[in-house]
Amino acid sequence: MTLARTRLAALATSILAVLLITAGQPALAVVKDAPLPAAFAKAAAASDVPRDLLVALAYAETHLDGHNGEPSASGGYGLMHLVSNPSNHSLEKAAELTKLPVEQLRADDEANILGGAAVLRTHADALGLDETARKDPGRWYQAVAKYSNSSSPEIARLYADAVYEQLGLGIDTRGVQVKPQEVTADRGEYAKTRDLNAQAAVASPDYPPAAWVAASTSNYRVSSRETSYNIDRVVIHVTQGSYAGTISWFQNPSAQVSAHYVVKSSSGAITQMVRDKDVAWHAGNSTYNNRSIGIEHEGFVADASWFTDAMYRASAALTRALCDKYGIPKTRTGIIGHNEVPGATHTDPGSHWNWTTYMNYVTGGGGTPSWTTTVDNATSGQFTASANWGTSTYSTQRYGADYRFADPVSASDAAWYSAAIPTAGTYQVEVWYPADAGYNSSAPYIVATSSGNQTVYVDQRAGGGAWHSLGTFSLNAGTYNAVGISRWTSGTGLVIADAVRISRQ
């Protein structure tokens, strides 16, 4: 839905600077290591930016981790990922707006948040958001997209959608909380932009479950593998940045780096950027570039929160397919980390990467569950949904006699599966759904874990007619709504509720 908006003349940068400084000094004194909740509140007030939106943007960029002032792969610093590279100078812009030194903006959390808020506000001013409009987080969508400085409108939309998804899900990390909330995003000019998560996205030519977004031709070498070189390695990387940011960076001619595939943390979505036959510049070693396929994983080496089960499983499925296709051994000889490339100066994927779990998924290992239960949408007394959920027998990929469907909306209207969990412990949760091009590109499954609800996004356009793992979760004992599927998503297409299976190994 696109809201009507009043376009006012953009406020001059000097006016914003007045809000932030008094007599040449920052209006809000920056205190080293100030608690993050106070830092976000202060920055939001200084630049008149919705506080929860500011947190969601920071979370999408860095999971609220400043990484001790170390830069991302694209030269971004701090919680707000203020960037200094040939095509993006948001760090320098933040210094101009806040009158704070670049060194402080890089390393100090509160200063960095102040800078990020100030930069975001300038984008809102350029879009003509007046005081009333600025109070509605949904009206900031285009400003968030501009903040990304993405290489194309498609990537800018991918970035902004990730931020707004976090508002719908809520955030609770590092002492900062954002409650789940309904926000109608005004996409404005991006409403007609190709949605890389939707059925209109171009499929990967080498791995159909992935989307295709080409890297800049300045960042890889055209080749004819396996005629010119044999492919005998898969190299595992960590992006040191966000999913959308990495895709944008690989499209930037000045990057001089690329990888064949990029994997998203929250959902395991995959984008291919360089054809398998071509040589991506990812390993820092020309011999290994010639012989390998590089897979980048969204996140930062030092932060384990990025390495989700959805990411492991999606990446492992890709690696397994590559190994089968090119005869690569499914061992730690054929599948290596960037840090294991001869002469490597990088440490990724790092100590938080779980090689045991990953290789187990690659080889298809597992165990016989000691307990399992399956709940279908027709299971008496164990499935609940409002009248907004219709019933269909359209797809032959369904589990059982039928399945349920509903349009996506910005509202809490989940369908729930109840299960009798025998004892507290760790359980695998799997879902079954029929796939169709008109089904949801980012269906949010909710798991009621012992530490609170966790959400895993699933692309219901593909992979249907089989059990799809959401991951392993800690569940409490008892009979309760254990798994749900929400209609609250920025994805497109009908949300499908069919069956779930919960198992304990």
TrEMBL record:
Residues 219-350 form the N-acetylmuramoyl-L-alanine amidase domain. SUPFAM superfamilies: Lysozyme-like, N-acetylmuramoyl-L-alanine amidase-like. Gene3D superfamilies: 1.10.530.10, Peptidoglycan recognition protein-like. CDD domains: CBM6-CBM35-CBM36_like_2, PGRP. It is an enzyme of class 3 (hydrolase). It holds the Pfam family Golvesin_C. Its EC number is 3.5.1.28. InterPro entries: Amidase/PGRP_sf, Amidase_domain, CBD-like_Golvesin-Xly, Lysozyme-like_dom_sf, NAMLAA_amidase_2. It catalyses: Hydrolyzes the link between N-acetylmuramoyl residues and L-amino acid residues in certain cell-wall glycopeptides. Keywords: Cell wall biogenesis/degradation, Hydrolase, Signal. Residues 1-29 form the signal peptide. This is N-acetylmuramoyl-L-alanine amidase. The lineage of its organism: Bacteria, Bacillati, Actinomycetota, Actinomycetes, Streptosporangiales. It comes from the Bacteria.
